Amino acid sequence: MTGPGRSFPRRLRHLLGDVAALVYLGLCAALLIWAFAVSAGDNEDASFAGVIPLLATAPASFVLIALPDSPVMFVLAVAVGALVNATVIGWCSRALRRGGGASA
Predict the structure, then answer these.
(1) What do you get for the CA distance between the two ends of the chain, in Å?
(2) How many whole angstroms separate alpha carbon 43 and alpha carbon 53?
(3) b/e per residue, 84-100, with b = 16+ CB within 10 A?
(4) Which pTM value belongs to this model?
């Protein structure tokens, strides 16, 4: 039940607890692990492996990727992008499930 008296962290936890948001977060985590695993080997295509998690978490991840180049900033950019997108996915999923009589 969403109400105006609910605190921001509680609303955020409510949105991120949605099944669609959790599936998206799991997919982003798997892509991040895959990118690091592929980059660890001697492969000429390994330099492009980091692009996939960034594209999966765009546009929010592009804001942080401009910061200093390090693996920590890459993980932070993907994590923040994934959390922002998962929040939007959770909100959309709950709004669609709720239906509603929103007047146009």
Answers:
(1) 24
(2) 18
(3) ebbbebbbebbeeeeee
(4) 0.78
- Structure-block tokens of residue 74: 């890459």
Question: In the numeric block, which tokens belong to residue 7?
Answer: 């605190």
> H-type helices in 41-70, by residue range?
51-56, 60-64
Owner of token pair 């909100």:
91
Per-residue pLDDT of the chain (104 residues; tens, 9 = 90+): 455 667 767 777 777 888 888 999 999 999 999 998 888 877 666 678 888 999 999 998 888 877 777 888 889 999 999 999 998 998 898 888 887 655 44
Q: Which two tokens stand for residue 85?
A: 């997108």
Residue with tokens 């605190």: 7
Residue 7 is given by DSSP the state -
